[in-house]
Structures are given as structure tokens and as C-alpha cells.
Design a protein that fits this description.
The protein has about 425 residues and is an all-alpha fold. It is built from 19 helices and no strands. Helix 4 runs antiparallel to helix 17, helix 9 packs parallel to helix 11 and helix 10 packs antiparallel against helix 18.
Amino acid sequence: MLETCKKSENIVFLIFAISLFAFSKGYIVGVILLFVTSCYFGVKKQLRWHNNLSLYMLAIALLFTPYIVNLLQGSTQFRELDNIARLLFFGIIGAFFLVKKPDSRVVTVGFCISLVIIFIAFVDAQIAGLNRSRGIIDINVIPLTTSVVAIMAFLLPKLNVSNHVIKKIIYVAFMLGVSSIVISQTKGTLLALVCVLAMYSLCTVKQSWKRVSLLWLLMFSSIFITSELTNASLLSRINLSSSNVNQYIQQKQAAREVQDIEETKTITPAVEKNRVDAGSTIVSSSTIRIELWKSTLLLSQEKPFWGYGYDKAKERVLELVDLGEVEGYVKPYLRKNYHFHSIYFDSLGKRGIAGLVSTLLLLLIPLYIFIRNRHNAPEYALSGCLVIVSFIVSGISDMSMLSRMPIIIFGVLVVLCTANVSKPNQVG
């Protein structure tokens, strides 16, 4: 192991993994180090390319297309391109990984250390009084925990190793990762973790049902213990969200019933009660999301293919609020924010069907690469698939995947897995 760590690619990757959560902007420092190292080997003409990397870069190019169209139409801003532009740098990092693959043990230990570091940061924030809006290490908790879940997803297939010490390290890191999510009180990322573990269970239960059972036991134990120590804040948020959504649905049903009956001019005590129910407004993060998603469906009906663009989408939703098509309580949110709380609905509302399709392809093309090449490196193929699942699920209710840290984690993990599942004799 000591001899392994002396290799440049292992040292660089270890620094990248550890620096992710070690300090503010640590993830930027780490990825710059990876990029500079890749460029150095490029200058020495030691990089290689592969058709799988070409396919991945095609997915990135397709993602850019709707943004460029909106930019040419004058309906978006360069800031929209800022985060996704980082994906372009991962082509050269992938070419570096093709010839200088970091040792799997180094990758695993490095990411486990990063999960320990972020757990300590969350505990420290919890003791000091967690402020979810301010976040941890100057990063909002949702992008942060999205990154945590992606790393946990990557690590799960590493439990197949014969080294018992590394196995124990992964189990401990997994528990600490779950505890970090519970402390953060983020519902969407907890759902993503559950889906990742469910997918992992389906893929490996025949080979090791004991390991799968242990992981579920560790997850629920960590949730229970951490919830008890944090006054069950996450569980309370989940219950409150469920209650608010149910009341929102009942309110909409009552409003429709009132509208239908009032057309017949028949006012009964039941109708009067429904009037009261329809007028009672439930405002929460969940109901705001539902209204925002509904607004993007309205936008897509008006401009289906390329969408309204960054600026005009927001302006049009505010007009829909004034017209009564969208609830008024989304106005304060839209004045402070510029997205629709879902990578799918945001793409549809701002960039139309082309934006939605290109976003889906960014996730599905790597998934296709991992499934098609799964026999070359089963462990890395499964890791890649689980990483994609984590981003697919977390993207349902948040825009965090396209935030700075998650997009870097996504890029590194995808090219790392792609490099490992690509056959050496196909490398050119």
C-alpha cells in the first residue's frame, strides 16, 4: 500500500478526495490539481482517448446546445453556463485516468476520509446551531449532501474487496454519511440514498444478502440514533412536508368543487365549507415546489421546444401569478431565486423540451456506458450506475446537481468509472 501511494496519480487523487470537504473551496483546489496534472501528462504526450469518453463529451455538448440557443436569442445569461462549463475540463481528466488509473484502495480510503471530515463539520455546525441557509464550509447543505450521497453510492460496490480493514472503513464512513444527511435535514438527499441502497441491494443481494442486510441495518440505526440526538428534526420535516402536500391537494380539490358548483348557482353548507377550505393557503417548501413545477408545465405549453430562457421564464411566471394561474406565494421565492427546484422542471421551463432531453441524456448516456461495459470492470460499472441513480433522484426536487460542488463530483466520478470500464485495447 505504501508503494502504491508513491505513484503520482494516487497522490493527486488522495489530495483531491481529502480536500473536497476539508475547507471552503477545497473541491475547487482538488479538481484544479487533477486538471493541472492531466495537462502536464498531456504536454508529455502520455494521455489516451477512448470512444466512451467521446460519447460522454457528446452528452456534454448536447447539454450546451439549448443554453447556446437561448444565449443567441438573448433570453439567458452567461452565468447559466458557468457551472456546466466545468464539465468540459473532465475530458482531459478522463484521458489522464485512462493511462494513470488511481489505485482502487487509494480512491476508497480517500473518499472514506472525506466522509469522516464532512461528518465532523456537520457535528460542529449542529453544536454551534445549524443554519441550513448558511450551510457548512460556506456551501448550502443541499448541494453538499448531494455530493455526500454520490460518494457513498460510489463506495458501496467497494465492499466486494477481500481486505477486511477497508470493508470496516467503508461501513464506518457509510454510517457517518447517513448521520451527516440526518443532521442536514435534507429530505431529497435521504430519498436519493434510499434509492441508491435499494438499487445496490437488487444488484448484489444474490451474491451477499448478509452484506445488504447489514447496510440497511446500519442505515436505519444511524437514522434513529442521529435523530434522537438532534430532536428528530429531519423526521419532523418529512412528516410536516407530507402533511402540507396532503392539505395542498385537499385545498385544490375543494377549489375545483367550489368552482364547479358555483357555476350551477347552488350554494349549500358543504359548498360554503369548501370555500373556506379553498381559501386556506398552505405555504411550505413542498407546496412552493409544486407550484413552481406547475408553472414550468404552463411555460412549456407556450414555448415548447427551446423554452423562455433564464430571464424571460422568471418574468413569465410572475405574470402567471398576476393572472391567477400560479399561487401568489411563489412571488417572494422567485424574487430571491432563479431556478425551479428541479433539474428536470427547470430545464423544461427555461430551455423547453430540448433542455429536458439534453439534461436526461447527460445522465442516461453515462448510464448506458456503464451498463454496456459492465463486464470489463463490474465493480466500477456498478459504482457508476449508482452514482447516476443518486443524481437522478436528488435532481427531482432540487437543482443541486448543477451547483458547483456536485457538478465537480459528478464529472470526476463519471470519468473515473468510464476510464476503468473502458477496454485497454480500445484506447487510442
